[in-house]
Amino acid sequence: MRRLFGSVRARATLGATLVVAVALVAAGAAVLLSLKSNLMGEAGTRAERSARAVAAQLAAGTPYDKLSGLDGDDGPVQVLAGKKRLVAASEDLEKISGTDSDRVKPQSPVAPGGDDDDDSEEDLEPGEIAGESTFKNGSATIDGDTEDYRFAAVEVETHDRGRLKVYAGAPLAAEHGAVQTALTVMLIGFPLLLGVVAGVTWLVTRRALRPVEGIRSEMAAITASQDLARRVPEPQTHDEVARLARTTNETLAALETSVERQRRFVADASHELRSPIASLRTQLEVAAAHPELLDLDGAVEDTVRLQRLAADLLLLARLDAGERPGDAKVDLAGLAREAAEGRTGVTVDAEPVNVAGSRGQLGRVLANLLDNAQRHARSAVTVSVRREGDLALVGVADDGDGVPASDRERIFERFVRLDAARSRDDGGAGLGLAIARDVAVRHGGTLTAAQGPAGGALFELRLPLS
Predict the structure, then answer these.
(1) How confident is the model over 156-176, as a mean pLDDT?
(2) Per-residue pLDDT at 17 exceeds 70
(3) Which among 156, 191, 225 is the end of a domain?
(4) How many secondary structure helices (H) and strands (E) does the chain include?
């Protein structure tokens, strides 16, 4: 049961069925009440018509035994005088309830002013019929047949018999029959209608969720096969399911790119680490066999290269893990002067500009940009810091050969070197610019390459002001 109602299709079907069931019950109750009220009103109208017809005869002075309408064909009739004294009734009336008197046989009249005197509050002139009628429900037995009736009571002031009250009843059999028929139809039709609603909802939901099942099964297959090149099917629609499929495929593409990037990163890192480790091992093995041939400076240099490469790889791993840069205030002008201090041929033109972030990471960006510029410059490197609207702009330019326009994005990829003839010892591992751009992006900024004023490369770092 839990598994069944754990399905979206089952929950949607159950919800739709319950909503329709509540609506049908409310509508059915309203229909029954309205039908009953209308039929009750019609029965009251018929009863009032009969009562007023008898009252009109009494107002005209017709004797009790000459009254028409007492044959019982249109329903039971009672004529009461004074305080519930029955003076006339329908023929064959055997039993009655719901009126002021349960008698069925007329009583002997009394003299006016005696027990027949009425205490009604409505003043009537002799021969006048009251305008208001009262209604009650009851039952009566006529010639052995018992039925429910709607009784109407009408008062009339006679010339010689005082105040009389006429009760006339209209049968409620039609009302009961109509209500019962309607109720029977609802009891039979509502379950059938709910079944149709549940079936249609189940089929429609199944059709609507079929692409979702396709997405789920394909994602399960991708997980099992670990083949991130596969994609889920995209429905040719413009609904939420189609957008879900497109978003899923975009996520898979991003994941595939990320995994491929990590694979390349691991392969390149392994390759880069192999060279200094192999060189260091060779020197140590030679030194172990021939101590007099130990190249201590080379061993130290390889160790430093290995240390720098390990630090770069560690920083890249932290950046890929989403390490937040922090929100400390950093003075880019002071940071640029610190990075340029002790470097030959580097000049700094900076105005005070503050940004928010990690001082250590931003210092690493400037150091990497200066290292790259000094490797390619002929004689001079210029660092500038200034405001540009709501951004801080740091420019690092050299007078070297520059970067071809076609390679100005590729140089920010990891382990990329444009100068194939340059040695690894002089050129590094190709991680400096990649680290610089990643740090810039983590700080909400950008790092781009262009042509400098002296014809060399110009790297521009833009960061939001603090």
Answers:
(1) 89
(2) yes
(3) 225
(4) 9, 13
Same domain, 62 and 145: yes
What is the pLDDT, as a whole number, of residue 333?
92
- By residue range, what is the domain housing residue 362? 328-464
345 and 314, same structural domain? no
* Pair (151, 271) in one structural domain: no
pTM: 0.51
Q: Do both 68 and 165 map to the same domain?
A: yes
The rounded distance, in Å, linking the Cα atoms of 432 and 418 is 13
Q: How many CA atoms lie within 13 A of 392 on its CB side?
A: 25
Give the H/E segment covering residue 172: none
Residue-wise pLDDT tens digits, 97-141: 989 888 888 886 654 444 455 555 567 888 889 888 899 999 999
The reported pLDDT for the residue numbered 109 is 60
Which residue pairs, CB below 8 angstroms and at least 24 apart, start in 191-199? Answer: 193/20, 193/24, 194/17, 194/20, 194/21, 194/24, 197/16, 197/17, 197/20, 198/13, 198/16, 198/17
Block residue for tokens 């009336």: 93
